[in-house]
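Consider today's protein:

***
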Amino acid sequence: MIPRHQAVILILLLVASIAMGVVLWNLRERAHQRLLQGQATAPTQAPQVAPAEQATLMVASDADDWVTPRMFTLPLPQTPQARARAILGKLLELYAVPGAEHPAPGGASSVAEVFLLPASGAAGPSRSARRAPARAQLAVVNLTSAFAASHPSGIETESLTILSVCATLHANLPEVTQVRFLVDGQQRATLAGHADLTRTYLTAETVPAEGARP
């Protein structure tokens, strides 16, 4: 015969086991309900992406020491600053691929940001400035220090990069009449030892005339 105190312990263990089972069952049901609610509120459509549009990239070639317009279909955001960054990102992406006509490591991530501001007359008088549209803008292109550090050094190759960036901005955003460059948000003397980054570039002077060659 089982002693009385052992019987009491067995009964208590049995009750505790039943209570634990009930608690676990309730927890399981609550978790199942939360899962069903999450499925019910989950989006049924894929997130929208930027619509694809045509963009003109002024692609540099070291062999020709010139830039040539090329058309690309790209997903472009609607805001001008985001569009400018996406377009320049694609341009620098072309320069980063193996066998590029104008090699420059870094790719799209080399453009940290592009800011569009009202253009000023700080660049000095010129024929292009007098013909500038009423809403002329200054584009401030903020490059990464990694891009500047890895860019090939030389007046020709650095100038081609500057030329292609300015010409590409103007080809897609005609209101951009001036361009300045920063590196990691700071002014830098040169791109890689030669091309001046302290000046303001006039896009009308960097856009090549059709059929022209230096």
User: Anything to note?
Assistant: The chain has two domains: 1-42, 52-206. The two ends are 111 Å apart (CA to CA). Residues 122-130 have pLDDT under 50 and may be disordered.
